[in-house]
Amino acid sequence: MDLVIVGSTNPVKVAAVQAVVARIAPNATVRGVAVASGVPSQPVGDEETQAGARQRARSALASTEGATFAVGLEGGVVVLPDGRMRSCAWAVVVDCHGREGIGGSLSMPLPDRVAARIRAGEELGHAMDAEADTVGTKHGRGAVGILTAGLVDRQRAYEPMVAYALAPWLAPAFFDA
């Protein structure tokens, strides 16, 4: 794990990957690159959000010579059967041999006012900016930071997902046939 590429230049996403990688490969370099997710700017549903994370990871790996691993992180929303909305987020890790791992988390109820803004076409981060009278939510504490009154911020919420997605490499005896 010499060079790990993150399929985003969002400082929160890069920092989350850096925090995890530093614990398992302290000498590795982590770098973000701008790549498209291939999904709408506000993914809806776990499948679409996973697809965005997967596309980010694959594109990041393909765009960077010498990279051994790439990580895609994507946040989305899920509409529940009763019409309410929750957040979701997924991490996909791919290596230079085509192996893939996936991990998810950040399932949290969203306020009705925020859900209404998302239904009207806003991204979650912009909806939270408007409702919390702030700017840069998705590049900072995230909706999770606002809605948990700072108990959890976006970076800390993303870190476990990255670790979950790395499970096939961290515990290969359980995943290798």
Automatic annotation (TrEMBL):
Protein name per Swiss-Prot or TrEMBL: Probable inosine/xanthosine triphosphatase
Enzyme class: hydrolase
Superkingdom to which the source organism belongs: Bacteria
One GO term (biological process): nucleotide metabolic process
Domain Non-canonical purine NTP phosphatase/PRRC1: 7-170
Subunit record text: Homodimer.
Similarity comment text for this entry: Belongs to the YjjX NTPase family.
Record keywords, A-Z: Hydrolase, Magnesium, Manganese, Metal-binding, Nucleotide metabolism, Nucleotide-binding
Cofactor binding notes: Binds 1 divalent metal cation per subunit; can use either Mg(2+) or Mn(2+).
Pfam family, any one: NTPase_I-T
Enzyme Commission number: 3.6.1.73
